[in-house]
Amino acid sequence: MTTQMFEGKGHAAVYQKYRFAPGIVLKQTILSYLQEKKAIPAELAVDVGCGSGQGTHFLGEHFKKVVGTDISEAQIQEAKDTPGMPNISYLVCPAEELPFQDASVDVLTSFTAAHWFDIGKFMREADRVVKPGGCVAISTYTVDMSLRYGDCSEKLTKVFRECWDQILKYSHDRLKYVLDNYQEIFDALPFSDKKRITDIYDQIPMTVEGVVGYMESSSSYQTFKKNDPKAATSLLQETEKRMLETMGVSSRETPVEFWVRHVCVLGCK
Q1: pTM value?
Q2: What is the predicted pLDDT for the residue at 1?
Q3: pLDDT at 15
Q4: Which residues contact 204 (CB under 8 A, 6 or more apart)?
């Protein structure tokens, strides 16, 4: 069954506020593949493990009907409470038990969520609901991240990574799928027509507050916070202070370039 790490209302609210939508290059990569396979225009797209809907909104621009699903009621409530397009709806359900008929889904996606699923059961379910000729796009951003700001990018990235490394000590063992660049997830996809792209780099517009908020939204940080609330809070406060000092600015609203590397598994049934 799906590993549930994003259940609390407080965590869901932080997630909704600070998690970024799929980057431009990732979106172009997915859309180009769907066009190549003639999977768009299409009737129904399903976004599995949608969280608070960041990736689902992107799909709404390209499909007649989009359904976001997640096992977390708190996440789905955040998604429903966020203004969106009228062709998007949300459902609470496990990734391994999708409430769709056999061969009824044109495109199935999952953005930075599949490593939490029971991979075998999810792939069997994807195979069941996707139409012949339909496609899947399963992506994640990796822990390969950097910051750019003026001539202090290297120092700024060092400050960020020192904090991030501390947080990652509290990672769930399912991070192994991400560290393996979704190789196991690619191998488990039961389509013969498939490929894996591991070098998709995207610049995400952020602020200092947004970068710190992103780290706060991670499941690893939430685990850290449960174990040692004082140390976890202090780490983020100190990191924000160091970032501002490194940049020579005082406002946490100062824009920075946040660079992430995505991995994407694409397949056509």
Answers
A1: 0.88
A2: 46
A3: 44
A4: 20, 23, 257, 258, 259, 260
